[in-house]
Amino acid sequence: MRKIVIFFVVIIFTSLYSMHARAEEGYFFTSGEKIYNRYCSPCHGIKGDGKGFNAKNLDPRPANHTNIELMNRRTDKELYDAISRGGRFVGKSTLMPPWGETLNKPQIESLVLYLRKLCTCRGL
User: Fold this and answer.
1) pLDDT in tens, 2-42
2) pTM for the whole thing?
3) CA dist 89 → 86, 100, 114 (Å)
4) How far apart are CA 40 and CA 50, in angstroms?
5) How far is Cα 50 from Cα 62, in angstroms, rounded to an integer?
6) 3-state secondary structure string, the chain?
7) Is residue 8 a part of any domain in this protein?
8) Residue 99 lies in a domain
9) For residue 115, what is the domain's CATH number?
């Protein structure tokens, strides 16, 4: 009987841990800032200023997402398309990869919102 109780306790704790891990993973992957830090900051910089550690290796240089004038000229759809389909699709750098197979729609939308926060602008 004791082994059965231990078995069920282990199953319950495993299930609870699994649900907690999935919940945290969901939060991680829906937070625009965390997504940006993971996928975008190597080129665009942790501050969004285009000075990521990999920026010096890229020509053209990555966009400065804190530049209000630059970011105000872009619509949210253009930002979404650039993230989803890559720089080439929107007539920008071919070095900007398409993230549409890696990130889902809500994740990309949260990135667009975070870009607007970085530039403190609304765009077109």
Assistant:
1) 545 444 433 444 343 333 334 444 444 469 999 999 999 99
2) 0.74
3) 6, 12, 21
4) 10
5) 5
6) CHHHHHHHHHHHHHHHHHHHHHHHHHHHCCCHHHHHHHHHHHHHCCCCCCCCCCHHHCCCCCCCCCCHHHHHCCCHHHHHHHHHHCHHHHCCCCCCCCCCCCCCHHHHHHHHHHHHHHHCCCCC
7) yes
8) yes
9) 1.10.760.10
